[in-house]
Amino acid sequence: DAGVIQSPRHEVTEMGQEVTLRCKPISGHNSLFWYRQTMMRGLELLIYFNNNVPIDDSGMPEDRFSAKMPNASFSTLKIQPSEPRDSAVYFCASTDRGEKLFFGSGTQLSVL
Amino acid sequence: AQSVTQPDIHITVSEGASLELRCNYSYGATPYLFWYVQSPGQGLQLLLKYFSGDTLVQGIKGFEAEFKRSQSSFNLRKPSVHWSDAAEYFCAVGDPYNQGGKLIFGQGTELSVKP
After folding, report:
1. Are B67 and B33 in contact (CB under 8 A)?
2. What is the per-residue pLDDT for A39?
3. E strands of A1-112, at which residues?
């Protein structure tokens, strides 16, 4: 298996633009997580899905952030409109039994 | 609320020296405990995990960790550090009653290795 695949690896955008981050979990995994990593706040859980259903979105910073998982093999995290403080590395991770999270390589987002 | 504290933001050790990274957690019962490692520009990789049983767990790359319930700690150790161990290390806790659920990560400890 290719592991958790995230795209793009790097995204540079201007304030106010819409940003969409994509994630393909490992086949057969039924839980998917979106994390954000910054120097100041470390690794923060934004939202996680179980069997494509959002279970806990309490970490989503505000209404500008939204996440979807239309099927078991694809998820998106959207920021609209983006702001400079959203600049961070966004990680997607998946697991099948919660014993081990498999992380993607992350998307480095820079909002100018 | 669950929380994880890694008291050391940055540690430097000499190659060949022993290593101990500290982790303390706050949780109502015994959580699932994990150590992950992150190399620059990469995602996190699991080093080891503790669910139950023997309190000393072995992981990959020669790492081990010991669960001490009385101290709410799960410190990571390695007897002899290699230059390739330079990375950031994260301790995490999970809810044993919600398998497949979220992990709470500590702030991380950055390890530098001197030649």
Report:
1. yes
2. 87
3. 5-7, 10-13, 19-24, 31-38, 42-50, 53-56, 65-71, 74-79, 88-95, 102-103, 107-111
Contact of B52 with chain A, judged by CB distance below 8 Å, is answered with no
Q: b/e map of A63-97 (b: 16 or more CB within 10 Å)?
A: eebebebeebbebebebeebeeebbbbbbbbbbbe
Q: What is the pLDDT of residue A99?
A: 73
Instruction: Identify the pLDDT of residue B100.
Output: 60
Give the nearest partner residue to B100 out of A31, A42, A43, using CB atoms. A31
Q: Which of residues 65-104 of A touch B (CB under 8 A)?
A: 91, 93, 95-101, 103-104
Specify the pLDDT at position B101.
64
